Amino acid sequence: MRYDLVVFDNDGVLVDSEPISNRLLAGYLTELGHPTTYEDSLRDYMGAAMHRVHDLVRERTGRRLPADFDDVFHRRVFAAFEEDLEAVPGVAALLEKLALDGIPYCVASSGSHERIRVGHRRTGLDRWCDDGRIFSSEDVGRGKPAPDLFLHAAERMGVAPERCVVVEDSPLGVRAAVAAGMDVYGFTAMTPAGKLAGATRLFQDMGELADLLSH
């Protein structure tokens, strides 16, 4: 293995949640008087922590979102997860291989711990992702594109940043990984390759990743 630690983003990389959550986010913002399309949501919020939603809406409109915005949004997302969420194709086999080969890995997500756990229970990924491997933007002061979350994960896992590789599917996540001094492999199944500029490598199928990590 070329690296001492593989750091996975969660949404869009491990669980196929981005279409669900961005559809719901666009709908809820529009409902509140902030017209937002699904494409707008992907462009502005994919890979971001919830504080970015609040910050951008306030910056653009001068208005604050309701105090219960996060709670209402997450209730809607979790309900949709229970109905529709699936693991990204190939992820279960990849995590099983990493575990069997003894290759250290962890999850570093902009989502809350609750969101991560709900998604993993629904998809069965909790089998390979125990609490000691999971880090959330809730654990640090600033979410992506700041490097804080990835640096926190590396420190907790006892690995130097330059020995880590991040697997990301969002422009914000790629920027965060680069800022953390880590290599980053951009997953282009949902995001156009051109939007992941700065990634060390690009790949489109999770089945490719094990070979990429070893060469």
Q: What do you see in this structure?
A:
This protein has nine helices and six strands, in the order βαααααβαβαβαββα. With 215 residues, the protein is α/β, with parallel strands linked by helices. Strands 3-2-1-4-5-6 form a six-stranded parallel sheet, with helices on one face. Helix 6 (113-123) links the parallel strand 2 (105-109) and strand 3. Helix 1 packs across helix 2 and helix 1 packs antiparallel against helix 4 (69-84). The radius of gyration is 16 Å and the shape is globular. The mean pLDDT is 95.
- Could you tell me the number of beta strands? 6
Record the strand order, biggest sheet. 3-2-1-4-5-6
Query: Rg to the nearest angstrom?
Result: 16 Å
Shape: globular
Per DSSP, what share of the residues sits in E-state strands of 2 or more residues?
5-15%
Major sheet attributes: 6 strands, parallel
* Helicity, as a percent range: 40-55%
Count the helices. How many?
9
Structural class: alpha/beta
End-to-end C-alpha gap? 7 Å
Uncertain segments: none
Order of helices and strands: EHHHHHEHEHEHEEH
